[in-house]
Amino acid sequence: MKIVRKIITTKEEEEVVDVLCNKCGKTCRNPGAYEQSPYGLIEQTYSGGYGSTPLDDCTNYTFSICESCLKDFFDSFIIPVEISEY
Ligand SMILES: [Zn+2]
Questions:
Q1: How far is the CA of 81 from the centre of ligand 1 (A)?
Q2: Which of 21, 55, 58, 74 has a C-alpha 20 to 30 A away from that of 12?
Q3: How far is the CA of 43 from the centre of ligand 1 (A)?
């Protein structure tokens, strides 16, 4: 049988305060938006496949891209992205 007592402890946790765009280095948060959660591709991971070139094969690439850089990226496509409402 365990004999227990109640104690108060504090626990240190990490809180994400901002996410920076890997391309431009600016925040992924939209300062004009009511909600301050980040916009864009946030902490996405792409895995280079086996034998992949020019990326290293079997390697994970994790990055965040803000919406502004994402728009510039889309605009650079020869074949436009498909756009639809959700
Ligand atoms: Zn950016």
A1: 19
A2: 21
A3: 13
pTM for this entry: 0.77
**pLDDT tens digits, one per residue of 64-74:** 999 999 999 99
What percent of the chain clears pLDDT 70, i.e. is strictly above it? 97
Separation between Cα atoms, residue 23 and residue 33, nearest integer Å: 21
How much distance in Å is there from the Cα of 76 to the middle of ligand 1?
15
* Sequence letter at residue 53: T
* Contact assessment for residue 34 and residue 24, using Cβ atoms and an 8 Å cutoff: no
Between the CA of 36 and the centroid of ligand 1 the distance, in Å, is 16
